[in-house]
From TrEMBL:
The lineage of its organism: Eukaryota, Metazoa, Chordata, Craniata, Vertebrata. Residues 551-815 form the G-protein coupled receptors family 3 profile domain. PROSITE patterns: G_PROTEIN_RECEP_F3_2 (PS00980), G_PROTEIN_RECEP_F3_3 (PS00981), G_PROTEIN_RECEP_F3_4 (PS50259). It is a multi-pass membrane protein. This is Taste receptor type 1 member 2.
Amino acid sequence: MKSFVIIPLLLMQSSASAVMSFGSQNASSEFVLRGDYTVGGLFSLHASGASVIESCSSLNANPAGYLNLQVMRFAVEEINNSSKLLPNITLGYEILDTCYIYNNIQPALAFMSKDYVFDTEASYTNYIPKVISVIGPDNSDSAETTADLFNLLLIPQINIFATSKRLSDLSLPSCFQTVASSKTQQGAIIDILTFFNWTWIAVLGSSDEYGHHGIQSLIKLATDEDICVAYQGTIPIKIPGKEKEWNNSILQIVHNVTSVNVNVIVVLSVDIVVLDFFRQVLDTNLQGKVWIATETWSLSTVIYNLPNIQRLGVVLGIAAKYVDIPGIEEYLSDAYNQTKGHSLNPDVKECNQDCQTCLNSTESSSFSFSEDRVSFSIYAALYAVAHALHIVLGCNDTYCNKMDVYPWQITDAFGQVNFSLLGNLIHFDQYGDSPTGYDIVIWNWLGKTHFEKVGSYPELGNLVINPDKIKWQTANNQVPSSLCSPECRSGQEKRQTGNYICCFICVNCSAGQYLNENGICIECSQHQWSTEGSTFCYEKTRVFLTWNDTLTIAIFTMTILGMLLTVVVIVTFIVHLKSPVVKAAGGKRCFLMLPALATAYLSILAYLGEPDTMKCILRLPFYSLALTICFSYISIRSFQIVCIFKMSSKLPATYDYWVKQNGQYVFFIILCSTQVLISCVWVSVNPPMESTKDLTSDTVLLSCSQFTSTYNILQYSYNAFLSLMCFTFAYMCKEVPKNYNEAKCITFTMLIYFVICIFFFTAQLIDVGEYVNPINAGLALASLLGITGGYFMPKCYIIFLRPQRNTTKYFQSTIQSYTKRGTGSTK
C-alpha cells in the first residue's frame, strides 16, 4: 500500500499531537473478545431515525441488531474452535452500536485507531489499526459513510445487509459484500413487475442515499421495460419537534399515490423510516395495495406486528437467501445465560453497556430465527475474513505464522478468497460482490410463518415464482392489475395518450392490416387479406386457369385440336408438295408459315396454369410474332398472285424488277423484322410478367401485366395492319382463276381476326373480372383456328375430297378460261 495522508481525519483533530480518546465517548463496548487479531462489528443495537442522539440507551432496542451481534459471536467462536482454518490463532471481535443511522462516525474512527487513540502519521503503510476488518454496518447510509473512512486505510469492510450501488464501486477497493448487490435486487423488482404485468406503479424512497439512488436506478430500468412510474416520492425522516410538517408530507404522498390510481407501490427505504410511514398510512385510505419491499424491510417483524398492518394489502418482499446454519439456534437459546468472554468497562455507563438488555431483547423478541436471512451473510463474512487471514499468515492445516498484519494485506487477500460454506460458493469479483441472489417472500397474515418464500431470483436473473402460493386480497384470488389503460384486445393497436407509454387508447387494425408482434398494425402483403381487428393475414384465393377447370380443359382440347390440324396440314403439304394445289398455295414457302402457326398454338398453353414471366412472354410477344409471320406470308402470297395475273401484263418492267430482286422475300423479311423489333424492345425495356389484381377483398386474379401497354397495343395494331393488307390483296385477287382465287378464304380469316381485335380491345376497356384469362386465351385461339380453318382447310378439302381439281389439266383449264375472259373483255 502506498503512503498517503488522511486529510479527512486531520480535519477532526486540532493538531498532530492531539489524542482522540473514544473511551470517554459512546463508542466503548462490553461486546469484546480478545484475540490475536480483532474483527470489528457495527450493528444497530438500538434504533432511531433522529439526527441528534443524546443517549443510545434512551432508544428502543433493535432485536434484529442484537441477533446479528450474536451470530457474529457464534461465527468467531466456531472459527476459533476449528483446528484447520486458523490453527494456533485466536480471532477476536469488538462490536459497537451504530444506533441505526447517524451514530457511525465515532465507531468507525474507534476501529481505525490504536486503542482509541489516533495519531497523525506521514505514511500509513505500516499502520496497524484496532481491527483487521469490519463487519457491517447493517444499513446502506451508514455503510457508505464508513466505507469512505475505512477505505482511507484500506480496512476491509464486509457489508452484510447494505445493497447501495455505490458500495460496489471500483473507487472503494476495500469494500466487499456477502449480500446480493442492489443491481440484482432491482432486477428482481423489475422481473416481478413484468411477471405480473404491473406497468403502472408508484415508487417511494427514503430521504437518504439508499432511497435516492434506488429510485433513480429503478426508474431507468422500469423505463427500459416499458413500465411507467406514475409517481415517485420521498419519505422524510420523522424529526422530533417537526411532527406536523412530517404528517403533512406523508398525507401529501398518500394523496399523490391515490390520485394516480396505482395498485402497486415499490418502497426503497430503510425499515425504521417505513415503520413510521406505515403507522401514519394506516390512518388513511391508502389500503388494499400491493407493496414491494426491498431487503431493508422485507423481513421486519416490527413492521409486520403493527396493528392492522394487513389492511395495507399484499406485501411482496425481496429477501436474502435463507441458509440454515447448524447449531445457531442452540447457541442463541443459551445466550441469555451466557456472559463469559465479555468485558465490562466500569468507567463507562452508556447504552452499549446494557448487556443484560441486549440479551433480554434477543431472547424475548418476537423475531423468529427460522425467518432470519441476514445471519448467513454475517456468518459468511466472518469466514471470508478468516480465509483471507489464512492466506496472509501462510497457514497450513496445523500452523500459522503469527506476525503483524496490515489491513491492506487482508484487502488484497480477499481477491484470492474462494471457498464453499454450507453448500454456497463464497468469492468476490472485481467489484467486491459475491455470487448470490434473493428469495421472493410474501407476508403471510394468517399462517404461523410470517414470511413465506414464494420464489427466487438467482444472481444471473431468471425469476422463478409460484403465484399459487400468493393470497391476493381480490375476488377469486385474481392477480390485481396495475395498469394506466386496460390491455387492448387481440387485433388492436395501442395509440399513446399523454406522456406515458403505458397510457393509450386501443384502435382496431383496419381491414387489410394485421397486428404484428410489436403491437403495430401492418399492411398485409399483396397476396394476403384480413378483416378488421386481425392478428394475422390470410392468403388470398388465387384465380387463374387451373388445370382441372372446365374452361381450361376446353381451351386445352381446342388448342391440341388446332395443333393436330396444323400437323395434318404440314404432313399433307409434304406428301402433296408437287401437287397444283400446294404449289398454288406457295409450295415450299408454306413451311415458313405452318411452323409459326404451330408455335402460336403452343403459346396458347401459356394461358393455362399459374402465370410466370416466361409464360407471359409466350402469351404476348411470342404469340404476336408468330401471327405476324402468318399474316406477312398471306399478304405477300396474295400480292404475288396479283402481280402474276395483273401487274405482269400492265406493268411488265415493274414485275420483272420484283421477280429479279426477290421482292417477296425482301418484303417478308421487312414485315417480320418490324414485329421482331417491337417484341425485342418490349421484352428488353418493360417485359410482360405475372401480375395480380384484386377481385374481392379475399380473391386475387393472377394474370400477365402489360395487356394494355403501348407495346402490346402496337403489336396488335401492326398485326391488324397486316390483316388489312391481306384483305386488300385478297379483294384484288377476286377475278383471278378460281384455283388461285383465295379471296373468300382470306376474307373469312381476316374478318375473324378483325372481330377478335374488337373483342380484345373491348375486354381491356371493361372489367371482365376473373374471366380475363379465358377470354384472352379464347380470342388468341380463335384467331389461330381462323387461319388454320379459313386458309389451309379448303386446300386440304380439295386434296382429299376434290382430287379432280388438284390436277395440272384442271388448273390449266381455269387459266385458259381466265385468259379468254380477259380477251373477251378487251374486245
